[in-house]
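Fold this complex.
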Amino acid sequence: MAHAAQVGLQDATSPIMEELITFHDHALMIIFLICFLVLYALFLTLTTKLTNTNISDAQEMETVWTILPAIILVLIALPSLRILYMTDEVNDPSLTIKSIGHQWYWTYEYTDYGGLIFNSYMLPPLFLEPGDLRLLDVDNRVVLPIEAPIRMMITSQDVLHSWAVPALGLKTDAIPGRLNQTTFTATRPGVYYGQCSEICGANHSFMPIVLELIPLKIFEMGPVFTL
Amino acid sequence: MAAPPEPGEPEERKLLGFLDVENTPCARHSILYGSLGSVVAGFGHFLFTSRIRRSCDVGVGGFILVTLGCWFHCRYNYAKQRIQERIAREEIKKKILYEGTHLDPERKHNGSSSN
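Structure:
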């Protein structure tokens, strides 16, 4: 989960998120250098003694400042498109979970191996145990195995919601009447938090998502299905 | 990357307020080499031409080019290293899983070499 006042990305828990962090670092370095150049140009503008206002014809400079941004955009776009297509790969998921957004809770359905359906409500502050996270912990977590491709089918029963888990690099809109799909493979066990990411009413900020990722062996023993 | 800084650890430093050079792999290395390149290029240009403003321009250009060059070189090697680590991790897992079974790659290899 994010720590207080965190601005940067959370640690990656899936290969896609690792790629996203790498791309973020790459783009940020390019942005930093452009900002540096612009600040230098601003400094020169503020300190120049040149006052000739009849300058015209700067063909070379105009060529450079047209072609160079095009090259920079290509350098940013190519890795971005690579990751975009990578996120759309569907590599034979082992498990399919349905996630249905409501005002203001999530319903999860494990229908592959039985008919487990449950709601996931945020724990109200009065019901928090010591160590629980305020506004993040839920009564029923989504328990999933690590190192297995998982497909999430996301929809909504009423208004727009969005199912997001930053540590896994996931954010998929829950749209009424539409079934959206996202797949992921988690690489590390743990508890990962997310929050609804599409404004959906008064309690939009109070319908979190909690994934509990456990080793496959333990998942197969059936802790989920003993609920 | 996402953990809050521990009491003994240095605070995160962000250049221009957003580039975290401490926690971004290769960032500190690239910026330091870029700064060195900038000083060498700018100062060298000044020694040859005695033009201050143009030397500053060369210095800034040198900083950008050297930083970019070091960045791409370092990130390429970092990506290669990560791929090698991932392959090694998978191979170790497979070895532990399949050792002694008919799927053991070493067994297959020894079998084919003895034939």
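The interface with chain A takes residues 1-4, 15-16, 18-20, 23-27, 30, 60, 63-64, 67-68, 71, 75, 79 of chain B (CB under 8 Å).
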